[in-house]
Structures are given as C-alpha cells and as structure tokens.
UniProtKB/TrEMBL annotation:
Classification via Gene3D superfamilies: Histone-like protein H-NS, C-terminal domain
Gene source species: Trinickia fusca
Family annotation (Pfam families): Histone_HNS
Listed SUPFAM superfamilies: H-NS histone-like proteins
Domain DNA-binding protein H-NS-like C-terminal, chain residue ranges per copy: 47-80
UniProt feature coiled coil, ranges: none
GO molecular function, one term: DNA binding
Entry-linked InterPro entries: H-NS_C_dom, H-NS_C_dom_sf
Listed name of the protein: DNA-binding protein H-NS-like C-terminal domain-containing protein
Classification of source organism: Bacteria, Pseudomonadati, Pseudomonadota, Betaproteobacteria, Burkholderiales
Amino acid sequence: MVKGKIPDEEARERLILWIRRRMAEFGITPQALADSIQHDLDHRPLYRDARGNEWNGQGEMPDWLRAAKNAGVSPDFFRIDPTRQDAAASSKIDPRQLDLFF
C-alpha cells in the first residue's frame, strides 16, 4: 500500500457514507431518488448542446435552444440521435452500485 493512499474498498465505503449524509441533510429519500431516475428514463432528452444542456421537448423551450433558434440555427441541429440513446439505455447497471442508496 502506498503511504497516504486509501484502499479502494474503504474509499467506496466513505463515499457511500458521504452520499447518505448529504441525502439526509437535504431530505432526499431513496424513493424520491428512484422516482427521479424513473422520470428521467421515461422522459429522455431529445435535444442537447455542446455544454450538456438538455431538453426533452416538453414545456417551454429552454433559453439555450431559443437563443440558437433566434440566431438561425435549426433546433434539429441539437436533436439527439435516437439510436445512440437506445444503445445507452440498454447498457447494464453495475450491481456494485445498487447498494449506494439502500
């Protein structure tokens, strides 16, 4: 072991504790987190810019996309390729991550 380096398993446990404390501090329940994740899965973004801003096409058009449209850029330029999106959705969840919040 390198002096001053925390073993991976200990670092992981510390991170889980930190996340749980922050969730408690802000009143975030595991169910609220699961509901938010499910909402994001059910309403995937349709548009994304180079800075990572996203919009699922619902509600009012966000400022970043409105500004681009007003500058003459078609919103279709920012449209996410649905085949890439489906490939990302089908990726498997690492089972080591399942105990992070429960």
